[in-house]
Write a structure and sequence with these properties.
Structural class: mainly alpha
Order of helices and strands: HHHHHHHHHHHHHHHHHHHHHHH
Distance between the termini: 25 Å
Number of strands: 0
Length: 570
């Protein structure tokens, strides 16, 4: 019965992860409309970058802390809490009226969405023995990767009948619905003696409604003779100083007081003090700052124009200092964020290293395959370029499920090495593509095989990590695995872009100046345009070759580090 309940909980978690993964990509189609709502024009695309990087920042920066809390507090409370956080972020985004509020909403969404993964992977380790974890890990990996395919389609379907706001309203509704379903899986011992704090729910409901109306400023109320008074600032011109906003603050304070004094509060906060004492919050804060600075440094840069963000000269030293503080704190804290000795097994830290290089290689496909398509077969059709990437993406979940099944028969190290060698070989082929390559069927085979290889490696890497870490740190270890992959993607795109830009500049240097070619004769101008296109192709060929190197490094590490002992031996 317990395993059956865990299966039901895992099914809910899988749906939640798939939905959150889709939300990572759903913003792609909605971004132009969101920019307009934030007062930005198409020419100000760089200023809109925080809408995407804000989600990524929330997704990664606090993940280790969430993973550790799931080890101490339990999987269900963290999963439920993350869904509520995701829903709150969705509401703020949907009601956002300017860039800061939209970015804030996306940041909170990212925290909730990213926080779902570590407790879910840990839940699999809690429920299934090592020899049977492969398939559930493969399914979770498949669901997560399927979000990259479903997300844009989901966004397109909603935008066909509504606005970008509706995407996030639906996010909130689905997130809360899944959270409500998860409440059935709360541990029975924590439910005994608990009641329902109706007054607390009323207070937080009224506070939320007031603040939501402040953000939305519905015309039917703001233009009313009487109701409009609630939206007039008491002082200054900020909407957050209106009577309605002040009322929201008052009800929020009343809710906090209620939770602190009620015999059976709506929020089970009393257990969190002990959790805080068992978690190195200062170390977690230092790691969050370090990860945040790295993410902003790389995520805010335009991959094909700049390697780092303009503020990198400030952000990278901050990241280095924060990381040093985290290491220092980890050596001295009574309960460090990463418990001492928890990742000493070679396959444990080896899985994290492999994940880093997998991310560094994978990002080349996600970013540069559509760019290659735009450069060659679809210069004026963004949709067609995106469909080329789908050839790669649809094979990822297929490989993930098969990789989970194969774990019953093949050790993690050789399986991962073979999978990533396949992806690396495909990248080498892509590194020799020319302007006509995407027009042949063989390119589809190469793209599908490359995605299949990455998918095939997902479950083995996760399984090796979980097998070689104690149950008490499965949430934290899973979080570090995800962080390594995401940081690998960010640093990878920077390094590969540097390599590509060097190849591009070398090719451009060999092209005669535009004055000598484009002298009014169309043939000369076409020759120049073709030469510049070939320079762009040379850039992407260098990127794909660099990605192949990253994939081969990951394969070698998997073969060397994940073979210390069979992951199914005890």
């Amino acid at each position: 019965m317990k395993e059956l309940a865990s299966r039901g909980l895992l099914a809910l978690a899988a749906v939640a992860i798939g939905f959150a993964a889709a939300d990572t990509y759903v913003v792609v189609l909605a971004l132009p409309d969101m920019m307009t709502a934030a007062g930005l024009t198409v020419a100000e695309l760089q200023r809109a970058a925080p809408i995407i990087s804000g989600f990524l920042l929330g997704y990664v920066a606090v993940l280790p802390l969430i993973g550790r809390v799931s080890d101490l507090r339990g999987r269900v409370p963290v999963l439920t809490g993350c869904l509520v956080v995701f829903a709150i972020g969705s509401v703020i985004t949907a009601a956002g009226y300017d860039l800061p509020t939209i970015v804030l909403g996306r940041l909170i969404q990212g925290i909730g969405g990213g926080g779902l993964i570590p407790p879910t992977l840990a839940l699999i380790a809690d429920t299934w023995p090592a020899e049977r974890r492969g398939m559930p890990l493969g399914i979770i990996g498949a669901v997560q990767e399927l979000g990259s395919v479903v997300g844009p389609l989901w966004g397109a379907a909603i935008l066909a009948f509504g606005t970008w706001h509706d995407i996030f309203w639906l996010n909130a509704a689905v997130g809360l619905a899944i959270a409500a379903a998860m409440l059935r899986h709360r541990p029975a011992e924590r439910m005994r003696g608990r009641g329902f704090d109706l007054w607390g729910l009323i207070l937080v409901g009224i506070a939320s409604a007031c603040l939501l109306l402040v953000m939305m400023e519905p015309e039917s109320l703001t233009t009313g003779v009487t109701s409009g008074l609630a939206f007039l600032p008491v002082t200054g011109d900020s909407r957050w100083l209106t009577p309605l906003a002040l009322a929201g603050y008052a009800f929020l304070v009343a809710f906090v007081v209620r939770q602190a004094t009620a015999a059976r509060p709506l929020l089970a906060w009393r257990g969190w003090g002990e959790i805080a004492r068992e978690t190195d919050l200062w170390g977690a804060a230092a790691l969050t700052v370090a990860l945040g600075a790295v993410i902003v440094t790389f995520a805010s840069a335009e991959p094909e124009q700049a390697v780092l963000a303009d503020d990198a000269v400030v952000l990278l030293p901050i990241a280095a200092l924060a990381l040093a503080a985290f290491v220092w704190r980890g050596r001295r804290a009574a309960n460090p964020l990463i418990p001492r000795g928890s990742l000493t097994a070679t396959p444990a830290w080896g899985s994290i290293a492999v994940s880093f290089f997998v991310g560094a290689a994978l990002i080349a496909a996600l970013v540069d395959i559509p760019f290659f398509a735009r450069l060659t077969i679809a210069p004026d059709d963004q949709l067609e370029a995106a469909l080329v990437l789908v050839r790669f993406l649809v094979a990822l979940p297929v490989g993930a499920v098969l990789g989970g099944w194969l774990l019953r028969h093949v050790p993690a190290g050789p399986l991962t090495a073979a999978a990533l060698t396949l992806s690396g070989a495909c990248f080498l082929v892509m590194g020799s593509w020319d302007a006509q390559s995407l027009e042949s069927f063989s390119s589809t085979v190469v793209l599908a095989a490359c995605g299949f290889g990455f998918g095939l490696a997902l479950a083995p890497v996760n399984a090796a990590l979980l097998e070689h870490t104690a149950a008490e740190v499965h949430g934290l270890a899973s979080a570090l695995l995800v962080v390594a992959r995401m940081v690998g993607m960010l640093i990878g795109i920077s390094a590969l872009t540097t390599i590509g830009l060097r190849a591009f500049r070398g090719a451009v240097a060999k092209i005669p100046s535009v004055e000598s070619l484009c002298d009014g004769e169309s043939t000369a101008c076409r020759a120049y345009t073709g030469a510049m296109r070939d320079a762009g192709i040379a850039q992407l060929q260098a990127v794909f070759t660099g990605a192949a190197v990253a994939a081969f490094i990951a394969a070698a590490l998997a073969l060397l580090l994940l073979r210390r002992r069979d992951i199914f031996s005890s």
